[in-house]
Structures are given as structure tokens and as C-alpha cells.
Amino acid sequence: MIRRLLGPIAAIVTLAVLGGAGGATAAWMASASMAASVSSATVATTAQLTGGLTTTYRADTSAPATGQLTIANTGGAPLSYTLATQLGAGSSAALAEKIALRLWTGSGCGTTAPSTAENTTLANAAPALPTAARTLAPGASVVVCVATQLDAQSASPLAGQAVTATFAVTGLVGTSWTTTATTAAFTQSVHGLAAAGAPACVQAPPHGVQLSWAAPTNRSAGATLQYRLVDKANVVVKELSSSAATLSVVLGGTDITADGVHELRIVATEKTAAGTVSSDSPTLLVRRTAVGNSNIKYECVMP
């Protein structure tokens, strides 16, 4: 008789334990009956990122980039959620630290985050989710509003840098059963003015040289740029402003004051409040020779 009662008693004890502690106890008890009720097949989630988070920030303006992170519990168990930010290879850590990240939930996602939003930076590997997105019942979903913004004052020093990121959401039942979904990647960069292109030097009779170059390929259409022709010591030899696609200057007389071979390069600057500066153009070599204070002569030197 005692043996015949062991089966029902064990079933009652197991039912009492599972009923009292829910999914967490089920995850802790590695038994066949537990696997049938809470398993990796019934713990599932999705995460989808939409909107305009892929963006290029400029030095003269830094409007927020916005998107929506939709999290859905597609399994059969209630889930507690955490969020992770993953930066792609080659991403600028310095830029990620300067990009503000704001997360909130509400009736609609605009460009202005409410005061209750979670505030951090894109460099945070584990940003906090808004309260309403931290737990979801089976079949439930939530839209998390996402806004990022780069302080315009931080843009110029970070010109040309970029960061690629993805969000990963993890749903948990207790500590043993987890499910993770990762969003598509988005890239944010800081506008960097390209270098002036195709620099060339030709003789300009009778005793000068003409230096020419092309405007940066990524300048804004019709924008007027300031160009400086500088030497190795960053001393400005010539300076001009133009919106033309190709430019040139003639060097002669006392434009360069010392004899010898001089390394010259073109630096372009956007004429905006912040003034994004281009990278240096390839070097042009020019030789200046003079006899006394007269007969000054310039020559193009092949590299």
C-alpha cells in the first residue's frame, strides 16, 4: 500500500512546488515535466528597430535622430527584459560617449524625450529600459521610443568618425531560461569635409608657378569654402574663398620668403558657425630661388 501511494504523493508535491514559485522554480528543477511546461521552445522574443537612427551629424546642427524599438514576447511564459548596446568593429568609442541616448514609452514617439526618459549614452553597454518595457506577459509587446543626439560643440573634434551599433533584448524566466533578439544595425557618423583633390603644379611664366586643385567631393552643393595654402610649419602662404569646383592660385614674388624646397598643402574649411575643417590634401613641392633680392624664381618639384 505504501508503495502505491508514493506516485500520487510525489505528483502532489511537484504540483505544489511549481504552483508556489512559478516559472523560476520550473527553471530550477531539471525534470521532464518541467521541460514540457517551460522550455527554450516556449521562451521566445523578437526585437525590431525602425525609424531614422542612421544619420550623419554636422558641426553646425545636431538635430535628434529617432527610432522605435518594438519588443514582443512571442513565447508562452512571462519575461523580464534587459537591453544591451553592441558596438561594431571599428566604431569610435569617443563618438559613442558623446552621443546621448534617451529611451521612453508613451502614446507616440517624437523628437523630444520626456523628463521621465532613461538618459545615458550610446557607449553604455547595458542601458536601462523604461519601466513599461521591463516585463511582458506572453503575447504582449511594447514600443520603446529611441532618440540619439550629438552636441554640436562635440562635432568638430570628432569629424570623420563613425559608430555602428545594434540593440539586443534579452527576456528571462528566473535565471536559467533566457531568449535574446538582436536588431538590425544602425550607423551614426560626424560629417568630415574630404580633402581637396587632384592637386597639381605647373609653371606660370615668367617666374611663378600655378597650383590647382578640386573642391572636396562631399562639400554641400553650392557651398562657399575657405581654402588655405599652408607650408610644413602651417604658415599660410595663400588664402581664398570660393564655391567653384576647381580652383587655382599663382605663387610668385615674395609669396614665399625663404629659398629652398617647400612642402605645401591645401586645407579647406566650411564657412559655418562651427567651421568643419578638411583633412590635408596631398603635398605639393615648390622650389624658390633668388639672387639677392631680385630675380626670384619658383619651380614645380616632382615628388
TrEMBL record:
It comes from the Bacteria. Keywords: Signal. Residues 1-26 form the signal peptide. This is Fibronectin type-III domain-containing protein. It comes from Microbacterium ureisolvens. The lineage of its organism: Bacteria, Bacillati, Actinomycetota, Actinomycetes, Micrococcales.
